Amino acid sequence: MTASSEISASEAATLLGTAEAVTVLCHVNPDADALGSALALGIALRRADIGVQVSFADPAVPSESLRSLPGQDLLVPPTEVDPAPGLLVVVDCGSSGRLGDLRDRVDTAKQTLVIDHHASNTYFGSANLVDPFAESTTVLVADVLAAWGVELDRDLAYCLYAGLVTDTSSFRRARPQTHELASRLIATGLNPVEVVRPLMDTHPFAWLQLLSRVLGSAVLERSAAGGRGLAYAVVPSADIGGLRSEETESIIDLVATASEAEVAAVLKQTSELGWTVSLRAKSEVDVAAAATALGGGGHRLAAGYSAVGTAEEVVAALLAVLG
Ligand code: MN
């Protein structure tokens, strides 16, 4: 690895365009932005006749809601990932740890290009295209493809739009130029409703019953976060049953609508004393700082971490950090 450096989208395009073979990795349990970014790069590289493999660490199967993304034939299981890639591209990861069991490829690769939009990014690549003002990693990938002269088609647009619509919470947080990017993507013939339905608007009926239990026992702590308020809900593992992560992960967006609370949290039980905690803030509280203090990370208004203890202990630790 050479010394770490910040590069532009056109420098990233040159790296890709002159590579002999490329390994593209995204974070464990990829979301639409991570997988959409990785597959869009994979599709463009394949079209340029550059050997490419796309992967992510176990569990190696994308969640059901992401199976409509084009280019999935580019995916290889983690066991088949080049042990020493010439050019490794890592997308949507703030740190190499987000690669899970594939994190060692950052050390074995000749060059690592990091493309990411997390403010907490550690610039772990030999080349880093990192912009915390980009609403999604797919925004940065779109810049790279434009600099490379890649013409957008429906498949590329599908992957890019998937990351864009989810990471902007359906364009609630998007700069003017990002709306313009969406316009260019739709102009390829993409039907936004078709992209969004499997990603965000589809749940089994059992989700409604899970919601009624979990939201029915949600708690409002008005004095939390310096009096700004915390609303939280607990999802016991027994209630999750056969439901997908898509169901449990959408609960935070509902809890975050409580007008009395600046901060929202959802505790999802993963084992008897194991939890993953999702945090959201409306505008004032930096939940990335809170999550980082508790061993996790994320964005200023959306972050998360893992915790060990009883639900009461996990809530107490969170309240202490929020102040
Ligand atoms: Mn992202």
Rg computed from alpha carbons, rounded to a whole number of angstroms: 20 Å
Oligomeric state as shown? single chain
What strand line-up does the widest sheet have?
A: 6-7-8-9-11-10
Helix amount: 25-40%
CATH H-level name of the largest domain... which superfamily? inorganic pyrophosphatase (n-terminal core)
Q: CATH topology of the largest domain, which one?
A: inorganic pyrophosphatase (n-terminal core)
Q: What ligands can be seen in this structure?
A: manganese (II) ion
Strand content: 15-25%
Number of helices: 14
Keywords:
323 residues; six-stranded mixed β-sheet; five-stranded parallel β-sheet; Diaminopimelate Epimerase, Chain A, domain 1; binds manganese (II) ion; 11 strands; inorganic pyrophosphatase (n-terminal core); alpha/beta; 2 domains
Describe the structure.
The chain is an alpha/beta fold. The chain folds into two domains: 9-200, inorganic pyrophosphatase (n-terminal core); 206-322, Diaminopimelate Epimerase, Chain A, domain 1 (Roll). The chain is built from 14 helices and eleven strands. The chain has helices at 9-17, 32-47, 105-108, 137-148, 154-167, 176-186, 192-200, 206-216, 224-227, 237-240, 245-249, 251-255, 287-293, 311-322; strands spanning 21-26, 51-55, 87-91, 111-116, 127-130, 219-221, 230-235, 263-271, 274-281, 297-299, 302-308. The strands form two sheets. The chain has a six-stranded mixed beta sheet. Strand 3 (87-91), helix 3 (105-108) and strand 4 form a beta-alpha-beta unit. The longest helix is centred in the N-terminal third of the chain and has 16 residues, at 32-47. Bound molecules: manganese (II) ion. The site of manganese (II) ion has 6 residues, from loops.
